[in-house]
Amino acid sequence: MEERRAEEQPRRRSDGERTHAAILDTAMRLASVEGLGSLTIGRLAKELGVSKSGVFAHFRSKERLQLETLAAAGEVFEREVLEPGLKAAPGLARLQALCEAHLSYIQRGVFPGGCFFAQVLAEYDAVSGPIHDEVADGQGGWFGLLEQEARTAQQAGELAAGVDPVQLVFELAAPVELANYLSVLNRDPRFVERGRRAVRERLAQAATSPA
Amino acid sequence: MEERRAEEQPRRRSDGERTHAAILDTAMRLASVEGLGSLTIGRLAKELGVSKSGVFAHFRSKERLQLETLAAAGEVFEREVLEPGLKAAPGLARLQALCEAHLSYIQRGVFPGGCFFAQVLAEYDAVSGPIHDEVADGQGGWFGLLEQEARTAQQAGELAAGVDPVQLVFELAAPVELANYLSVLNRDPRFVERGRRAVRERLAQAATSPA
DNA sequence: CCTACCGATCGGTAGG
DNA sequence: CCTACCGATCGGTAGG
């Protein structure tokens, strides 16, 4: 028997699921600014106007809250960076599109504190534990994807034979990363433009024909 | 009347000054790993085997402790990066030496969590206040120094006339920054080598004669 | 989802 | 530098 839900469409998700998602949404915004370690259950509760144990019940430990927040930010990254970037054709075009999507996501201020993963990377790079490991995995996956596109580009003759794909990806990701930190630090989007220029010039230099 | 101090040389500094310096030393190490915001007076006290108020008395507020820790880290940076880098002749040689000194300081693990300023940059880029402002000033000063050397190099004909000194410094600093984060994240010094290679190649490309 | 509570720790103060 | 203390907040639990 089908239930009639015409008037209730926005409620296909249960209230509990919607609250859960709302908590994670606030948690992502807070953590992008102040860090995942500064997230506190009480602070989130106040921000959302619910009781502390009301928030706690959704996660059962602070670490699970942190890990779920990280996973939720991963979904945002996929939607805002991977999805638009992957629309480009494999190879050089896609490599450039992924870098540009990353820069655009920084420039648009998808997270108020800049790139969520740049924040937690710096925060957990020297701290062992499950968050460190998740961040390292995510970072490795992102670079791996870029390297794959660089190899595809090279096999297609779009990149010079002498180019090292791993080194190239390092040199493309570096200005994007710095653009994020400096644009947030100085509240100046011109740093994103510097990153964009660096990426374009590095790609043009590695390409077999002028871009 | 001169006091005889032959046996007491290491005590030219008073006990209070030595304790103060010892607290800051521990604070720098802790903050480079866990962040300046995670510094707590109680934690420092335990680490040093003194009472909480014993530590507190040296700084009178947490913010002063943080700002003094930041200033102490600045002195380390001057000693470990600026001083060796500035020994090189002004211009291209010095620009390269400053980048190399920065990479070496990362690779040597002067701070256990990697570059102290990379840590606090990411931590405070989106958080307003005196720490943010100090970090922004320090970052601006460092880039300004590098840009000055780039201009000197260009005026001396060591860099091509078409090179934008500000953009060049951005593109030199970016791989150093990423090298820091990735070498710490993956506990793998080969990322420092990637940064070094990127800096060398970028400088060689900007130079008027092959390096 | 709530109130009420636990022990631990926070930054900071008083008084010595 | 110490002990002793303050109110606030932490993560988490009990019981509903």
Question: Strands, helices and their partners?
Answer:
The structure is a homodimer of 211-residue chains.
Chain A: H1 15-34, H2 41-48, H3 52-59, H4 62-86, H5 92-107, H6 116-124, H7 130-155, H8 165-185, H9 190-206
Helix pairs in contact in A: 1-2, 1-4, 1-6, 2-3, 4-5, 4-7, 5-7, 5-8, 5-9, 6-7, 7-8, 8-9
The first copy, chain A, binds a DNA duplex (16 and 16 nucleotides) through residues 15-16, 19, 40-43, 50-54, 56-57, 60-62.
What would your notes on this structure say?
The structure is a homodimer of 211-residue chains. Chain A has a domain at 67-206: Tetracycline Repressor, domain 2. Helix content of chain A is 71%, strand content 0%. Chain A has helices at 15-34, 41-48, 52-59, 62-86, 92-107, 116-124, 130-155, 165-185, 190-206. The longest helix of chain A is centred in the C-terminal third of the chain and has 26 residues, at 130-155. The radius of gyration of chain A is 20 Å and the shape is elongated. At the A-B interface, helix 1, helix 6, helix 7, helix 8 and helix 9 of A face helix 1, helix 6, helix 7, helix 8 and helix 9 of B. The structure holds a DNA duplex (16 and 16 nucleotides).
